[in-house]
Amino acid sequence: MDDRDHSGAHSAAADKARGHVEETIGKAKEKIGKAVGSERLEEKGAAQRAEGKVDRMKGEIKEKVEDVKDKVKAGAEVVKEKFDEARGKH
Asked: N or C: which end of the chain has fewer CB within 10 A?
């Protein structure tokens, strides 16, 4: 098991999930509002869908940042190993 802190990854997944839910509910409200002629419900749905998209995208960005951090850490470990090898420490 690795020692990485997965709270960022969990947060990313939670943001994405929450975003998808909010987008879906917002889209439903928009359609219902349009169907029943309620501009207010349609507008509220559009706003909720937009907020959901922001949350989903925030989660996706967090995932990308975590991926980059993992790759940088792995690269740094390789560089350290090569440096230690060059200095005669195995």
From this structure: N
